[in-house]
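From the pipeline queue, job 12 of 40. The input is one protein chain; the requested action is below.

Action: predict structure.
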Amino acid sequence: MADQLSYAFITPAALRKGRTGGILGRLISRSGLELHTGRIFAPSAGLLSELAATLSGQPKTADYLKALAAGSQSLVLVLKGEDAAAKVASIVGNDSSMGGRGETLRDTFGDLVEADGKTVYFEPGVIAPANAAEAVAGLKLLAEASDAEGGILDAASSFAEATEKTLVLIKPDNFAYPNTRPGGVIDLFARTGLALVGFKPFHMSVAQGEEFYGPVLDFLVEKLPDGRAQWESIVAFMSGKRPSECTSEEKSLPGSQPCVALIYQGPNAVAKIREALGSTNPANAAHGTIRKEFGTTIMINGAHASDSVENVARETGIIRLAENDFKAKIAASL
């Protein structure tokens, strides 16, 4: 069977309450599918209504989408692989699968309160199409709207204090096989209380790796007899190839190692994310930090986070985080 695409729409409430990690982790680990792309959206009323119309057999969900306030920030995850639509639908659940004990993501992360045969409160947490046809219809709508209604958004109005944005990279060691680790990393970042306002799976090229880690090259060469080799190992870990083994043309191609870039926003975002990340060496990291939980060595340590507002700008520019590849990836796979 040929690969399919399907999607999971993480609702504004689930995104705000830090449920993204749990949803993402279970989707990847239980489905075995590839996290193909993803994007933060602030969908218009028109997009929400059109998306609702593609979801047959889920009247509560359709009504929920049509009633959402325009511009409410949500996250769309796109998964790719064999029988993707059926797998995602089974894991996410639907309107009729919210009364169990956690069998579906709706059971775990959604809420349904009924009394006297009427719905008192309904919050699905995550929404997915029921079949391949619904998935294609929804993805076409989302792809078309992805420039105007998605990207790196702004959540400053949801905080009383001044805010800043910071960059996180979930490193390739978390994607060695379909597992819950990427979701676990996001879960631990959620304790910062910051808003997740940017999300982009990508493959770092060797050229991007050279530029991204360029500032540490002189330090490693000065401190270590094999400093350049160590630096090349870092670039190879992130991109899949050592710079010295590549032609100039090969360096510009997307690498083989999957990563996910995240943008968080809020007061003191850089410092809060660095605290949640932990020390570079996992052995020295505090308990409960990402590097203590998920790191193994100084290089294979779970995630990267920018260490200053200036480096946020530099690093996001290098990996071209603002560029929208969501639409192109969907068009190439449908």
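Job complete. The mean pLDDT is 95.
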